[in-house]
Design goal:
single chain, Alpha-Beta Plaits
Length: about 160
């Protein structure tokens, strides 16, 4: 029995391709998925974008994201065919379940960090009263350091 999974495919196409021809171009490749019994859930064409670094001496590319459900064999065949085409500059296939899990764990980590950060000022508030004399001495220290670092001709007396 073959299992189907949800996948997300990101494709960067050559900038020489007309943006109106991106969807028909991708449909030719996506037939691999539909012929194998998979489904195409969403095709999102982002359009022409600047690349972070040059790929094949090109600084722009046409981005497209495809969400689909298929078997792993059909997905591997789709990726193989995309890499053989000269108009496709880069491809990346992710299992959507893994991406969702990664996003959820990142959100959980960020929430925990925010909770720690929110708890920190409460602790700092009680410690602030104890360190008030130290804070008062800080400007005098900073003025002494600034005076020591300043050239001798332009040194001005520190004002208290």
């Amino acid at each position: 029995m073959t299992h189907t999974h949800q996948y997300e495919l990101m494709v960067i196409l050559s900038p020489e391709i007309d943006e109106r021809l991106v969807a028909p171009n991708l449909d030719k490749f996506l037939k691999v998925i539909t012929n194998d019994g998979g489904t195409i859930d969403n095709v999102d064409i982002w359009g022409r974008r600047r690349l972070a670094y040059e790929i094949q001496k090109k600084t722009e590319g046409v981005y497209a994201v495809v969400n689909f459900t298929a078997t792993s064999a059909a997905t591997a065949e789709l990726d193989r065919q995309l890499k053989l085409n000269e108009t496709i500059m880069r491809t990346k296939v992710l299992r959507a379940e893994e991406a969702f899990a990664m996003i959820a764990s990142e959100k959980e980590r960020a929430d925990a960090k925010a909770a720690r950060k929110a708890a920190a000022p409460a602790k700092a508030g009680s410690a602030a009263k104890a360190s008030a004399p130290a804070k008062a001495a800080a400007p005098a220290k900073a003025a002494a350091v600034a005076k020591a670092d300043a050239p001798a001709e332009t040194a001005e007396p520190a004002k208290a």
